[in-house]
Amino acid sequence: MECASLDECIENWDSIAGDYKTLENVNKEYLAKVEEVSDLQGQCMKQVSHQKYRLNFIAKSLKNFENDERQDIIKRLWKDINQRRQQLSDIEQSLPKPNGTYLKIILGNVNVSILNKEDKFRYKDEYEKFKLVLSIIGFFLSLLNLVTHRRGIELTFLFLLVWYYCTLTIRESILKVNGSKIKGWWRVHHFISTVASAVLLVWPNSETWFIFRPQFMIFNVLISVVQSFQFIYQQGVLYRLKALGERHNMDITIEGFHSWMWRGLSFLLPFLYLGYIFQLYNAYTLYKLCYHPHATWQVPVLSGLFFILFLGNAVTTSMVIPEKLREVKIRRIIKTYTRKMSGNRLGADPKKSD
Questions:
Q1: 302-307: long-range contacts at Cβ-Cβ below 8 A with a sequence spacing of 24 or more?
Q2: Buried-most residue among 58, 132, 311, 341 (CB within 10 A)?
Q3: What integer pLDDT is reported at residue 243 of this predicted model?
Q4: Quick check: 290 and 224 in contact, CB under 8 A?
Q5: CA-CA distance, 92 to 115, in Å (whole number)?
Q6: In this prediction, what percent of the chain has a pLDDT beyond 70?
Q7: CA 352 to CA 243: how far, in whole Å?
């Protein structure tokens, strides 16, 4: 749209000049609010640190009174201290946090804290979708490598793996800064996977590579399918818990377990363990290839890395599941007991009225 005459141009200029003055005033107010918010954040962080220091001082002192006669007061204090620690943790979720060592190396001191709850959920949602999209791409590239033998496609796929796991380590570090309770092993797992992918990328076109290549591509097809199942399960859990308002928006993996989650997880677990067993099979195959006359240094290194991945994944998952099932059992017992007590009270009411 253009002005029909010079007078109309002047009229429009005068109009936007007035609008610009309004914009300037709004911008000044905005900058003042930003400075105010920054000051309030600093005050909150100091107060939180002070509260933690005093709590630790009281908790340390309480240990000296284990034989005191007033155990009821000591128990109440411990309960209040633990409750206050949880309250401080909730407050910290709304405050910016310093980057960890890895993020400082990658990004410097750029603040990556996400303070808005909806933005946190959106970031977590994008993280899951990113994994799904790359899993689908990896699935088709693996199939393509199974039916073709072009080195260019192989290198494209292997480079994608390196980039994917590098990106995951950065994204998960940002999740951690924003309060995610992701277990340490899963982060270590992706660092190891990055190294393994880099070793695969520099593995030359040798006889040992051609022997292992089909098995590795089948393994990636399986992993892509498992990750797709994980996405479906994780999204269902994330959206349901967000709707219930029971968990932090950045939580990932098997945290905050509920009885209704078992139905989806019981379907997922066999596929997870199948992937772990395949990792062990990869380690075994590569171990045998170590004795091949044309074996390069990549073979024993990858054998060790695949075995570490198998061991860490299997042990971590095997430790988490029984713990969460015990929580489900306790919840069921409490729920049954509560229903019985409610039923007893309802049954007693008519007698009281008589």
A1: 302/196, 302/199, 302/200, 302/203, 305/192, 305/195, 305/196, 305/199, 306/196, 306/279, 306/280, 306/282, 307/279, 307/280, 307/283
A2: 132
A3: 58
A4: no
A5: 10
A6: 82
A7: 40
List Cβ neighbours of 65 (8 Å cut-off, separation of 6 or more). Answer: 74
Residues 109-121: what's their mean pLDDT?
80
* The pLDDT of residue 182: 78
CA gap 262, 311 in Å, rounded = 24
Q: Compute the distance between CA of residue 345 and CA of residue 81 in angstroms, rounded to an integer.
A: 34
Q: Hey, what are 269's tokens?
A: 């677990």
Can you tell me the distance from the alpha carbon of 31 to that of 265, in angstroms, rounded to the nearest whole number?
48
Q: Give the C-alpha distances (Å, rounded to integers) separating 79 from 85, 192, 249, 256.
A: 10, 40, 26, 21
Cα–Cα distance measured from residue 231 to residue 221, given in angstroms and rounded to the nearest whole number = 16
Residue 44 has pLDDT above 80, yes or no: yes
Q: Give residue 279's pLDDT.
A: 96
What does the alpha-carbon distance between residue 142 and residue 291 come to, in Å, rounded to a whole number?
27
| Integer CA distances (angstroms), 343 to 108, 338, 351, in order | 60, 9, 14
Q: How many CA atoms lie within 13 A of 190 on its CB side?
A: 17
The mean pLDDT value for 131-152 works out to 93
pLDDT at 103 exceeding the cut of 60: yes
- Report the C-alpha gap between 124 and 251 in whole angstroms: 8
Write down the pLDDT at residue 105.
Answer: 85
